Amino acid sequence: MSYLIEYEDASDEVREIYDDICAVRQTDYINNFWKAIANHPPTLHRTWQTVKEVMGSPGELDPLIRELIYIAVSVTNGCQYCIASHTAAAQAKGMSDEMFGELMAIVATANTTNRLANGYQIPIDEQFKI
Amino acid sequence: MSYLIEYEDASDEVREIYDDICAVRQTDYINNFWKAIANHPPTLHRTWQTVKEVMGSPGELDPLIRELIYIAVSVTNGCQYCIASHTAAAQAKGMSDEMFGELMAIVATANTTNRLANGYQIPIDEQFKI
Amino acid sequence: MSYLIEYEDASDEVREIYDDICAVRQTDYINNFWKAIANHPPTLHRTWQTVKEVMGSPGELDPLIRELIYIAVSVTNGCQYCIASHTAAAQAKGMSDEMFGELMAIVATANTTNRLANGYQIPIDEQFKI
Amino acid sequence: MSYLIEYEDASDEVREIYDDICAVRQTDYINNFWKAIANHPPTLHRTWQTVKEVMGSPGELDPLIRELIYIAVSVTNGCQYCIASHTAAAQAKGMSDEMFGELMAIVATANTTNRLANGYQIPIDEQFKI
Amino acid sequence: MSYLIEYEDASDEVREIYDDICAVRQTDYINNFWKAIANHPPTLHRTWQTVKEVMGSPGELDPLIRELIYIAVSVTNGCQYCIASHTAAAQAKGMSDEMFGELMAIVATANTTNRLANGYQIPIDEQFKI
Amino acid sequence: MSYLIEYEDASDEVREIYDDICAVRQTDYINNFWKAIANHPPTLHRTWQTVKEVMGSPGELDPLIRELIYIAVSVTNGCQYCIASHTAAAQAKGMSDEMFGELMAIVATANTTNRLANGYQIPIDEQFKI
Questions:
Q1: Statement: residue E47 has pLDDT above 70
Q2: Rounded to the nearest 5°, which phi and psi values hold at E55?
Q3: Of F2, F53, F130, the CB nearest to C46
Q4: Nearest chain B residue to A96, by CA
Q5: For site-directed labelling of C76, which of A16, B18, C67, E19 has its Cα 20 to 30 A away?
Q6: Is D50 touching B (CB cutoff 8 A)?
Q7: How far apart are alpha carbons B90 and E109 in whole angstroms?
Q8: What is the greatest pairwise CA distance in chain D?
């Protein structure tokens, strides 16, 4: 099910997306994630479009901050592949060891207070309501 | 279990922490989270020390970015109290609607790719390994 | 979908289980959980048998400890109904405020270290392997 | 990112914590968790203080019960490292195979009923409200 | 943050998507989900395109089965809004009470065995490897 | 803890269940899941009874659809063992690559909208309430 589709074995439709990934990321390496979801071309197409827009389009959050948020989600979900790939991506965009350490401290703390809020069944303060 | 301990009913030990919360946050409002966990003073003490340090000490991530990461975790875990309180906190620190929109888009996307990585049982690329 | 099936509206099959719940728990109150899943009698039957055995049969863990573990799972999952009902059950079995406080502290800490272990991609020590 | 900091390569600040871990646990083995988070000394310091207090300070829950709760959380979150290390810790503190079996049965059951409660959208009984 | 954008207050860009939702779903009711994410038009646009394709395009899984899978995920994550809205959607597409009961039973069982597999640290059988 | 109990080392009680698994599944292969939970015979007995009924008894959902739902839960929880074993089971029951692709697309999308619903704190529409 996770057969990885290499460029030379890919359909034209898939190759076009691989080419776009390489162009946008200025690399000639397609990582396993894309090669795996290429088994279902509509998923490959949709996912790449989404990732390209969400992580790369102009906006108020700079690219490194976006990667930190991505890691925070992946660590909370315990997704090993995404933790490994986005930690590498964040380092390539300038994440220092100190930044990673601060990020992990925040993720750890939020996971703690999330459970304290659940366990103590805390009612939302009026002023926090929308 | 979630009886909220008001300042006037609090022990000296708890009042001291409430005072510190107000001083650090420059407010006179203690939100329900602290009033609930005050039922177990060691948890109140430890949690406040941790939150104060992790969210407020000098570092490479600025305070607003820290709040965005906090929200990302809370949304992924589905903790309603923490989503409400930290969204309010982030707005107070300058989060714009556009920033919140970008944040949600990243959180949503990471939750998608986390599951695709799980489902396709994707092996970690050699170059992402540590 | 969560129409609650009252005793007077229940089939004989469902009533028999309601009777057993009341007998085992020495109460005449059927809580909403059972009334809801009674919409699918095989699920009611299976779930009650399982809960009765797992929470009530003789074993090495005493009944209060079993409730604490149940709460730990429910808080980690953020299931509001189960947190409320099992906190009440644990109190009925003798959980003190101090025990609840200690329980929450452990749950909070484990949720923190779980994420640090994920984020730092920590390899399992040889001696912990089975 | 998970480079493991050995004692001989550690700063004085980190060594002091390693020494305390060994003293408290009466061992001369520092497991990978601590060596990994030592990359961010404030996280190492805070996490060790928290774990030491929460798992080791006097209280109403005995040390083995605390480990069982820790395992319940780690299994629910699917954290492989924490499952392995805390199962080993619980065994060292006297967890029998029977106790582990009962623990798993409770964790499995709670995860089942948590989802039934979610899916049937069950309203909280008045008497369980706080 | 969850200010709901009504049709009359919406930009042309948002109205166009609202119109498409109504056309595709043959309704004149826009539910709160779309009105909320309309605060960030790129997210509204991307999410609607994705949902329209994934839930509505021709394929091997029929529309009701797709809703059942959607509910299974939402119940596992404990997302109250999504459970409520997709349960309603599934009923509109023909889900019977019996089908819902079977669905919940499977979701409950899978959540149980997922944790048993985690807790017992079960190695993947050779023949299940890909 | 995950010592796998082989048929020749099993008690009569466990062997009887192994025999039933083989008879029901028309195979002579007992997979590791059963061999591991056999360490706690009541859990083996209860889990097998539940799985046999939930996945195999007559009902409105056909066996392949039940496997797809099982995978959806396992992927959302990130349970590697269950993803591997139930993907194999689904393939054995006729799941095509296209069906798997559609399944993953739905799971990915639901995980995205679950988080958007959480983050935007969306109130449940009156008409979705039960």
A1: yes
A2: -90, -20
A3: F53
A4: B60
A5: B18
A6: yes
A7: 39
A8: 59
CA of C48 to nearest chain F CA: how many angstroms apart? 12
pLDDT at res. C130: 85
- Euclidean distance between CA atoms D119 and D129, whole angstroms: 20
Chain D residues close to A97, C-beta within 8 Å: 1, 39-40
0.90 surpassed by pTM: yes
Q: Which residues fall within 8 angstroms of residue D41, CB to CB, at 6 or more apart?
A: D11, D13, D14
Query: Taking CB atoms and an 8 Å limit, are C50 and F53 in contact across chains?
Result: no
| Cβ contact, residue pair A40, F102, below 8 Å | yes
Residues of F in contact with D105 (CB under 8 A): 40, 42-43, 46
Instruction: Give the HSE-up count for residue C29: Cα atoms under 13 Å, Cβ half-sphere.
Output: 8
Residue D123's closest chain E neighbor by CA? Answer: E80
Report chain C's mean pLDDT, rounded to a whole number: 97
Quote the tokens at residue B106. Answer: 């990243």
User: Does B104 sit within 8 Å of F75, measured CB to CB?
Assistant: no
Eight-state DSSP code of residue D57: S
Q: Determine whether the interchain pair A50/E53 forms a contact, defined as Cβ–Cβ distance below 8 Å.
A: no
- Cα separation, D69 vs D65, in Å, equals 6
Tell me whether A118 touches chain E (CB under 8 Å).
no
Rounded to an integer, what distance in angstroms lies between the CA atom of residue F112 and that of residue D31?
36
Query: Measured between alpha carbons, how far is E94 from D23 in angstroms, rounded to an integer?
Result: 64
Share of chain F above pLDDT 90, in %: 97
C-alpha radius of gyration, chain A, whole number: 18
Query: Which amino acid, A51?
Result: V
| Residue B120 three-state SS | coil
The tokens describing D47, both together, are 């996490």
Q: DSSP E strands: which ranges in chain B?
A: none
The vertex-D37 CA angle with D33 and D38, nearest 5°, equals 110
pLDDT of residue D5 exceeding 90: yes
Spatial separation of the C-alpha atoms in residues C110 and C120, rounded to whole Å: 15
Predicted pLDDT of residue A130? 85
Beta carbons of F130 and C46 less than 8 Å apart: no
> B117: which 2 tokens?
């990585």
Alpha-carbon separation of residue E19 from A30, B106, D37, D125, E34 (angstroms)? 38, 26, 52, 41, 12
Give Cβ neighbours of residue E25 (< 8 Å, ≥ 6 apart).
none
Mark which residues 16-35 of B lie under 8 Å from A by CB: 29, 31-33
Show the CA angle centred on residue B11, arms to residues B7 and B13, nearest 5°: 105
- Pick the residue from chain C with its C-alpha nearest to F43: C54
CA distance B31 to B18: 10
Among chain C residues, CA nearest to B3: C97
Share of chain C above pLDDT 70, in %: 98
Neighbours of A49 (CB within 10 A): 15
The ipTM of this complex is 0.97
H-helix segments, F1-130: 12-25, 32-37, 41-56, 63-77, 80-92, 97-119
**Window E:72-101, CB contacts with F under 8 Å:** 72-74, 76-77, 79-82, 84-88, 96, 98-99
